[in-house]
Amino acid sequence: xxxxxxxxxxxxxxxxxxRLVMAPLTxxxxxxxxxxxxxxxxxxxxxxxxxxxxxxxxxxxxxxELSCKAYLSQPGIVNDxxxxxxxxxxxxxxxxxxxxxxxxxxxxxxxxxxxxxEGDSPxxxxxxxxxxxxxxxxSDAEKHDRGLSGDWPKVTFPPARALTxxxxxxxxxxxxxGAARAIEAGFDGVEIHGANGYLVYQFIHPKxxxxxxxxxxxxxxNVRFAKMICQKVREAIGPxxxxxxxxxxxxxxxxxxxxxxxxxxxxxVGAALADCAADALHWSSFDWTxxxxxxxxxxxxxxxxxxxxxxxxxxxxxxxxAGAEAVFDSGAGDAAVVGRPLFAHPDWPHIIRSxxxxxxxxxxxxxxxxxxxxxxxxxxxxxxxxxxxxDTSKRR
Length: 396
Prior knowledge:
Oligomer: single chain
Distance between the termini: 52 Å
Protein name: NADH:flavin oxidoreductase/NADH oxidase N-terminal domain-containing protein
CATH architecture: Alpha-Beta Barrel
Pfam family, one: Oxidored_FMN
InterPro entries: Aldolase_TIM, OxRdtase_FMN_N, Oye-like
Number of domains: 1
Helix content: 25-40%
Shape: globular
């Protein structure tokens, strides 16, 4: 079944046994100080055992300054304790012969205000304020699954200030330092998070980038910061480790976001990234076939791949084998990136390859909080019940 999906492929320097990649999936299950837990090792190992070709970790903060950390209980790769925690994860995944890369992200303007230090404000491409809110803490179901109690407000984002050009260099250096620590922790490479509303996205999207210097005003300028990060990361980890760059039109605070100019802007972004130090690009969406452009039916991933000449990982709405195969039949990408199905069904690759009918569970956030795990890695679950404070005026 699905011969293209289950053929091997080389993405940058890494050989994948099949073309299925586990998407980076936010869980907020690390220790309060960002240390990965045994439960996380079990969670990732279970999906490696399930047959996935490669894993991209959940978004991980690489430094603890300038509003980099976005979520409570988000994992970090900042210090020796973080490295040791992630080493358990990478060892557990590698035991099944599966490569894993670390997604490095900077929250920018969409950070939980309780992650900021006293006196700090969020940073972004420009002086703006998101009109969205922090996800996953404002519903009764989520509170129940996480073991939280009490009144939980909708947590909104504070005003953000524009980064100076000197600070851009500092942030890019932070990505490079985090990447080097990720390699020390056993990762096979890193992904630079330029999607879903976070800092690098805030530069790439014309809606949030209002700059008039060399880092704004055109597709070429808008991706300049992302390219700087990728170059510094390449210099830090060398030529033999994978670098991917994730892109999207929508964000955690703008689920229906669309690039002005649609496919034409996407082609300009791709052309500007042609000489980027990343090996591959990663298109993120809710439905990769929907480009949100009324004037074109070309998938964004395909448009960017054609003008960049880069390998493309495609994410969005892939729920079965036929959906994965369609990515390759269309020529949109080199790998299919799958998220939600793997929360509840870690054996998803094996199941779709068998061709059998299967009673798929409807997606539920409870599988994010308490997913099936490998009990030989973690028993019973080593689950951390978060001690989150609902007072949004609190700072670290």
